[in-house]
């Protein structure tokens, strides 16, 4: 659905970086390497990195069934 | 913090310190063991699920000429010395 | 008063790494636990929904709001104090944590780009929320410290030369070392070898063979020296968190002393 606000494991705030991460790795004209984007965003631990790497926005998909 | 004395002799003390957990009890025990006149200090806590005594119980034994309750006060003083010292050292390093 | 030495390895607003010595394991652990569970932060606890026509239930939005870190200046509030915030966003638009309007300028969302909910055409979210000051022991959303840990400072001793025909296997080490064998070390990651210097293992990519090429090394923990790794969720700075955490232990010792004297 929506990106989790915090990392499930350590409690670090990851939601803050979602839109920039999504834009730079998926929507930009020449997408960057997700690993490098995460490094630049300061999302260092692998528990926090998986939160963003494995997330999929689903609001657009459920919206019609509201 | 509510205190309840369970057992008190001249050189022995068992006291329940309600509302505390390992965070403070272990620091206090560590400080007591460094305090002069204290021969033994330990504490015991049980998990909530045990259904029995769940508040920490501190046990102190002291040398013959030292009152156990005074030793506890000295132990608390020692904790304060440590916290003040570390706060000052941290602020000096910032 | 007890004498301590504190040395910073890294330091920024929200994260820091520092060495403390001489400190007992009991005291080090007390501080770590206090940073996680005993330093209070504001967090949204009660939400009154005026309108929620989004695709998420009220409870789901309440959960997300609770996890948004709010700035909590130390010493200004008492545990249990409340601050009211409001949010009013109409679709098509995404509601962000930065859209929360606080009634107290000291208590604001620490991060402003956290998406709360994506609103479509004709969807609206309007609510009023009460943030309460409480400790991490009560609920994890009140934890100010994130991934707070400590480990021993380590010393590396060169015990001889590596055998000429030995396999070149990496010697992995994580943490911070205190340089004690500068003669055998090479410069890595901008750390010129100098005895007594603190070198994070990142400087040599966590591999001792990069720092001490061709040498046989032995690693030992340094007694009474601990490296703390502290990070906050943005509620306050690392400095405030550390000082407040030590303060909570001191408060309890003072309270104990007063209770005995009665």
UniProtKB/TrEMBL annotation, chain A:
Is Disulfide bond among this UniProt entry's keywords?
no
The reaction(s) annotated as catalysed by this protein in its Swiss-Prot or TrEMBL entry are: RNA(n) + a ribonucleoside 5'-triphosphate = RNA(n+1) + diphosphate
Essential cofactor(s): Zn(2+)
- Compartment annotation: Cytoplasm
Entry GO CC = cytoplasm; DNA-directed RNA polymerase complex
- Could you say which residues bind Zn(2+) here? 7, 10, 47-48
Note on cofactor: Binds 1 zinc ion.
Coiled-coil annotated spans: none
Which keywords are on file for this protein? Cytoplasm, DNA-directed RNA polymerase, Metal-binding, Nucleotidyltransferase, Transcription, Transferase, Zinc
Which major enzyme category is it? transferase
- The protein's superkingdom reads Archaea
Single GO molecular function: DNA-directed RNA polymerase activity
Query: Does the keyword section mention Transcription?
Result: yes
One GO biological process term is:
DNA-templated transcription
UniProt xrefs under Pfam families:
RNA_pol_N
What does the record give as the function of this protein?
A: DNA-dependent RNA polymerase (RNAP) catalyzes the transcription of DNA into RNA using the four ribonucleoside triphosphates as substrates.
The similarity comment for this entry is: Belongs to the archaeal Rpo10/eukaryotic RPB10 RNA polymerase subunit family.
Q: How does it assemble?
A: Part of the RNA polymerase complex.
Q: Known NCBIfam families for this protein?
A: PRK04016.1
Q: What is this protein called?
A: DNA-directed RNA polymerase subunit Rpo10
Which source organism does the UniProt entry give? Halovenus carboxidivorans
Gene label = rpo10
Automatic annotation (TrEMBL), chain B:
Q: Does the keyword Transferase apply?
A: yes
Q: Which GO terms describe its biological process?
A: DNA-templated transcription
* Reactions this protein catalyses: RNA(n) + a ribonucleoside 5'-triphosphate = RNA(n+1) + diphosphate
According to its UniProt entry, this protein's organism is Halovenus carboxidivorans
Report the function annotation for this chain: DNA-dependent RNA polymerase (RNAP) catalyzes the transcription of DNA into RNA using the four ribonucleoside triphosphates as substrates.
Enzyme class per UniProt: transferase
UniProt GO MF annotations: DNA binding; DNA-directed RNA polymerase activity; protein dimerization activity
Q: Which SUPFAM superfamilies match?
A: RBP11-like subunits of RNA polymerase
Q: Where in the cell is it found?
A: Cytoplasm
Keyword annotations for this protein, in alphabetical order, are: Cytoplasm, DNA-directed RNA polymerase, Nucleotidyltransferase, Transcription, Transferase
Principal location: cytoplasm
What's the short name of a Pfam family annotated to this entry? Answer: RNA_pol_L_2
Task: Provide the assembly information.
Answer: Part of the RNA polymerase complex.
What protein name does the entry list?
DNA-directed RNA polymerase subunit Rpo11
**Superkingdom in the source lineage:** Archaea
UniProtKB/TrEMBL annotation, chain C:
DNA-directed RNA polymerase RpoA/D/Rpb3-type domain location is 15-259
Q: What EC numbers are recorded for this enzyme? A: 2.7.7.6
Q: Listed GO cellular component terms? A: cytoplasm; DNA-directed RNA polymerase complex
* Signal peptide positions on this chain: none
Q: Which UniProt keywords apply?
A: Cytoplasm, DNA-directed RNA polymerase, Nucleotidyltransferase, Transcription, Transferase
Q: Which Gene3D superfamilies match?
A: 3.30.70.3110, DNA-directed RNA polymerase, insert domain, RNA polymerase, RBP11-like subunit
A single GO BP: DNA-templated transcription
Q: What PROSITE patterns does the entry give?
A: RNA_POL_D_30KD
Q: Name one GO molecular function term.
A: protein dimerization activity
In terms of InterPro entries, this protein maps to: DNA-dir_RNA_pol_30-40kDasu_CS, DNA-dir_RNA_pol_insert, DNA-dir_RNA_pol_RpoA/D/Rpb3, RBP11-like, RNAP_Rpo3/Rpb3/RPAC1, RNApol_insert_sf, Rpo3/RPB3_RNA_Pol_subunit
Q: Does the keyword Nucleotidyltransferase apply?
A: yes
Q: Which Pfam families match?
A: RNA_pol_A_bac, RNA_pol_L
Q: Where in the cell is it found?
A: Cytoplasm
Q: Which reaction does it catalyse?
A: RNA(n) + a ribonucleoside 5'-triphosphate = RNA(n+1) + diphosphate
Query: What highest taxon heads this organism's lineage?
Result: Archaea
What is this protein's function?
A: DNA-dependent RNA polymerase (RNAP) catalyzes the transcription of DNA into RNA using the four ribonucleoside triphosphates as substrates.
| Record NCBIfam families | PRK00783.1
Its assembly, as annotated, is:
Part of the RNA polymerase complex.
The text of the family note is: Belongs to the archaeal Rpo3/eukaryotic RPB3 RNA polymerase subunit family.
Its protein name is DNA-directed RNA polymerase subunit Rpo3
